Prior knowledge:
The structure is a single chain. By secondary structure, this protein is of the alpha/beta class. The protein has 3 domains: 15-65, no CATH class; 110-374, P-loop containing nucleotide triphosphate hydrolases (Rossmann fold); 378-470, Arc Repressor Mutant, subunit A. Helices cover 38% and strands 19% of the residues. It has 14 helices and 15 strands. The protein has helices at residues 15-19, 35-41, 43-78, 132-145, 171-185, 189-192, 220-233, 254-271, 296-302, 314-320, 377-392, 397-409, 422-430, 435-448, and strands at 110-112, 116-117, 121-126, 162-166, 196-200, 209-212, 215-218, 237-241, 274-280, 305-311, 328-336, 345-353, 365-372, 451-458, 463-470. The strands form 4 sheets. A 9-stranded mixed beta sheet has the order 5-4-8-9-3-10-11-12-13. Strands 1-2 form a two-stranded antiparallel sheet. It is elongated, with a radius of gyration of 41 Å.
Amino acid sequence: MTAAQPEFDPYDFSWTNFKRLGKGPTLPLPPGETIKAVMKKHPLVKRQISEKVLERRERYAAEAAAEAAEAAEAEAAAVPKAPTKAPPTKPIHATAFQLRDPASLPEREWLHGRHYIRKYATASVGSGGGGKTAHSISEALAMATGRPLLDPDGPLTKPLRVWWINAEDPQDEIDRRFHAAAKHFKVTEGQLEGRLFTDSGRDQEFVIARTEGRDLKIAEPFVASMVAEIKRREIDVVVVDPFVSTHEAPENDNSAMQRVTAAWVRIADEANCGVELVHHVAKNQGEVTADSARGGGAFKDKVRSMRVFNAMTATEAEKSGVDDPRAYFRLDFGKVNMVASGRSQWRRFVSVPLGNGGAFSVGDEIGVVEPWRWPSLDVLAEQQAEARMAVVAEVPEDTLAGLKVRLGAAAYKADPKGKPWAGDVVMELTGVANRKEAKAMLDAWVEMGELDVVEEYDASARKTRNFVKPTSAPR
């Protein structure tokens, strides 16, 4: 019997092995040369050998994979499978409603300002730099101390345990801002008594949802950890600023935003606390409303109460007598479904020096939010009168005397649209180039009793008109 020929080994580069290819290369191996050296010198031999090697290697790999799969299948078949059980389901049932004394019903657990409420998520929405963070700091101090810092006429309330989380700023910046607010409102460590907690997202990860490919995964370990820590510290209110830094969900995906917001609601419910989400608005927004929040209706619909922040407009500044409207903003309840209605609340920034400067610096000045009230009609009238007096305070007496002579010698109308107008003489004598300012000066002198507005017959118009005359001029 003839012995079987050994099979070609594609991983053996000896000349003896390559002879097993049969109809492969016929070039004899020169003395002292290796097969690899021959392949380098003779491209034809290299191509022939490479094709054979590649074909054999692919075939061997496929055979090895098939054998491994066969073995795994046989091993799995040998192990008895445990019977699968359907997950237990709780049957759904309808609960009958029963009327009882309304006084026996549990009261809603409002925590602060008819906005923060236990077991719910709430939100404050506004443009960047619009006061949301500074406002939440003042509120956190108010809640932790029980003092009505943002409502001077409000009552003292039960102090709450507050956890304020900023997912973006470092801890030293958080410390500066809280110390500035505490200095402004004269809050002491004794008033806090360990009820305030602050943390930075740079030191810990406060991420509630992450994306894995196209999927959004709620970080259940984070949810469980938050609930456990809130319960351990007996936290009443958690403030999260900004909401956008706590998730990786695309904000134009309503379904994803709904899941992320719902996860924060679940924390509020399971930990028996209120969760405040400080959120931004979409770019290029005018007046901020509840619909301006990033994330569309999914975010708005999951929070129980939403406040919107708007900067004071130039028109509002003029009506209120404010010189710099950039320091003022208002809060409106953009969505309130647990209270009847809400009026606008006004706030303003004040600059508070920390006194932390050294030999070559003056130290930091931090913006702190405090309450501000729209002036009453009486106060506005008084402010406007003072402003008018200030307009003419620097006018020399001889200039005013010359004005009286001119106005007494001719008929100058009180109406800026009339010709000739009394304000034209004011502009000529004082050098004022603005008609609005000239009118303000006339109004001030009338109010001071230096000038008077009298009704006289206008021959050119053949009817009576109002004219400006010196008070001492004969009528």
